[in-house]
Amino acid sequence: MTDSIARQQQLYVQDGMSDEEIARQVDLYEPLTDSVRELIEVALLTEVEDEADLRAAHEHLDAAKQILRKRVNPGPYGVRWGASGQKRAWGNAAAGLRNAVAPPLVLRHDPDGRAWCDFDLGAQYEGPAGLTHGGVSALILDQVLGSAAEAGGAPGMTGTLTLRYRRPTPLGALHAEARIDRIEGVKTVVVGHLAGPDGVCVEAEGIFILPKWARNQDPSTISTPAPDGF
């Protein structure tokens, strides 16, 4: 086992947290994440030029950082499972509940296997003027397609992600969805799209590959990486 894989394994944790404690932490941390995300947008868009006001804002932010640094996790958040099997990927860059850099995605799953979410993107996700950055669109679709594969009982890691940019993606209200198209052995092919008020903006197809270490397991029980990776 390499050192890097060993370190990765340590970030997959069965911590036994109760559903009640998870709910308490959601109530505690989700509003903080939302506030920091809003702060990022406000810091980008503010036109306040008064030096005293800006210094005061900076001092308040420094004070908040000092409060939060009283107790911090020394590394990445990782992926954690509670006593009932509830998964917490709260550091995820695309949908982490405690990651203020992540777009505000709350993924839903229908009985027919469709994964979807409705969300709003602010100015901090801009690429071309007034439009969503193409890389942000890719980030979101990778997450939604992967979620559909996992929810459909055929999880995997992204092997390929093919995107077709059909029209510019606006900022603001957007919709993303995905479904499993077919399963070919250890490969799950998922299709989906990202849409705005005027229709589909980006179409996507992803191939998600079940890692070697997981191929003799029930996919619904897969939770930690194996020593040999893929």
UniProtKB/TrEMBL annotation:
One GO cellular component term: cytoplasm
Localization, UniProt: Cell projection, Ruffle membrane; Cytoplasm; Membrane
One GO BP annotation of this record: fatty acid metabolic process
Keywords: Apoptosis, Cell membrane, Cell projection, Cytoplasm, Fatty acid metabolism, Hydrolase, Lipid metabolism, Membrane, Transit peptide
InterPro entries: HotDog_dom_sf, THEM4/THEM5_acyl-CoA_thioest, Thioestr_dom
A GO term, aspect molecular function: hydrolase activity
UniProt catalytic activity: decanoyl-CoA + H2O = decanoate + CoA + H(+); (9Z)-octadecenoyl-CoA + H2O = (9Z)-octadecenoate + CoA + H(+); dodecanoyl-CoA + H2O = dodecanoate + CoA + H(+); (5Z,8Z,11Z,14Z)-eicosatetraenoyl-CoA + H2O = (5Z,8Z,11Z,14Z)-eicosatetraenoate + CoA + H(+)
Protein family membership: Belongs to the THEM4/THEM5 thioesterase family.
Protein name: Acyl-coenzyme A thioesterase THEM4
